[in-house]
Amino acid sequence: MPEPNIAVNNLTFTFPDSTRGLQDISLDLPPGSRTLLIGANGAGKTTLLRLLSGKRMAPSNAINIGGIDPFSTGLEGVTYLGLEWVLNPIVRTDIGVPELLRSVGGNAYPQRRDELIHILDVDLSWHLHAVSDGERRRVQLCMGLLRPWSVLLLDEITVDLDLLSRHNFLDFLKRETESRQCTIVYATHILDNLAAWPTHLVHMSLGKVKKWGGMETFEVPEVEAGGAAGNSRLGQLVLQWLREDLAQRGPRRGQAGEGKTYQSHEGKGGYGLESK
Ligand SMILES: Nc1ncnc2c1ncn2[C@@H]1O[C@H](COP(=O)(O)OP(=O)(O)OP(=O)(O)O)[C@@H](O)[C@H]1O
Fold this sequence. Notes:
Blueprint: E1 6-14, E2 21-29, E3 34-38, H1 45-53, E4 63-65, H2 70-73, E5 78-81, H3 83-86, H4 97-103, H5 110-119, H6 133-145, E6 151-155, H7 163-179, E7 183-187, E8 200-205, E9 208-214, H8 233-249, E10 260-263, E11 272-275
Parallel strand pairs: 3-7, 3-8, 5-6, 6-7
Antiparallel strand pairs: 1-2, 1-4, 8-9, 10-11
Adenosine-5'-triphosphate (ATP) binds at residues 15, 18, 20, 39, 41-47.
């Protein structure tokens, strides 16, 4: 793939037997970009990433990656790492790390394999039925990133990583985009220490893209003194977006606004809906 740009052109997609999906999405993410895909639960991030990866069929001409329609042509070089990959049962069996890495072609890329093992701090003597969730995830990331990809689509799979491992991992991805022709889209809810990482942001809500563009096009608010201590300015921006999205979506059926309140667990003795 010569120039791994991601072009989405008026993409509309509806799930079978459902009214949900994506509406009229257009994006143009340049080669070498690192995009954060931001949005509340259910905004449409996974749906978009799966369509970009070619795992779901999009209408023809709506998605173009490096000049190719990923579904019809089957794209070599596009790696999608999402929940279904994370839940692959193989990585819970009594299997050793070297064997696993070999099974995904690790021997073809020895230098890359050794670098990933170092960056993700993987112990080659681990057996995958007897490691922690975060350790397992580090091995999986090694496996998933071994083959040099042109486009990497990450669907929040760093939640188990400790802060340092996540930092090293994201640093590695940044270096990748700076040292060779490749492009990353990363859907995440965890924005801590991430402000300097993205080149682009895409804000999704209710199946649509509300805003997208280079980092320089976003007005990142000042951190409030006191109250916002510890939050990055990017975190503040996203918090503001999600509050607006929630207000726009309105209450869910049966919630406050239709004569009911949801009582919190704390101090009120249990979860329950009570009429006002
Ligand atoms: N197979 C499906 N059939 C019908 N509707 C679906 C299906 N998968 C997802 N949806 C709906 O599509 C919408 C978008 O889902 P999606 O998984 O893309 O959200 P998301 O932004 O990735 O959310 P999260 O942050 O929780 O992972 C949701 O309202 C969801 O209920």
